[in-house]
Amino acid sequence: MNKKLSKYFDKSKLTKLGEIVAFKGTKGDVVLRFDNPSYDINSEEPVLVEMDGYLVPFFIQDDSVFYAKNGDISLRFDTMKSNEDAAQVLKKPVYVSNDDLIVDEADDDEDSVDFRYANYDVFDQNDTLLGKIVDVDDIPGNPLIIIHNSFGEEILVPLNAAEVLAENDTIKTIKITIPDGLLDINR
Prior knowledge:
Blueprint: H1 3-9, E1 14-24, E2 29-34, E3 39-40, E4 47-51, E5 54-58, E6 66-67, E7 73-75, H2 83-86, E8 93-97, E9 102-103, E10 121-123, E11 129-137, E12 144-148, E13 154-158, E14 164-168, E15 173-176, H3 182-185
C-alpha cells in the first residue's frame, strides 16, 4: 500500500472521532458526536467512515461545519446532496488519521459560546439586520440559533432551517435564509 495512503487505512494509525448520530436539515447534513469533547475536526483532511467493515474516506464541505453547545458538530460531506445520500453514514463510526487529529487542550469556559458564528451580526436573505448571534440552544434534533436584536428581543432560528448564504469572518457578519413566517412567530 502507498505510504501516504496507509495513514488513512491502517486502524493502528487512526483515532475514532465519534459517530454520526443524526441528520441536520434535509440537504444531507449530519451531526457528528465526538467521543472526546476536546476533539475537533480538520475540514481540509478526509475523515473515514466505517461502513460494512471498510473505511471509506469522505471530505467535508468547509462552509458546512457548525458547532453546537454540547460539543457536537453538524457538517456535510462533499458527496452528500440529500438525506437519502447521508443515510448510508448514519450511526456509523468516524475515524481520522492520528496525524490529522486536532485536540483542543484549552480549558473551556462554562459560559463561553462554542459556536462558529458566535457574536456575528446576522442578516436575512433580504439584507435586513436581524441582530447578533449570542448562543445556540441545543435542543436534540432541532438546535436553535439565539439572536438578540437592537430592541433587546430574542429571535430563535432553527439551525436546521438556516442556510448560510454568505459570511465575512473579518467583520463577523453572516447572511442566512429565514423561512417565511418564522420572524412573525418570534414577535
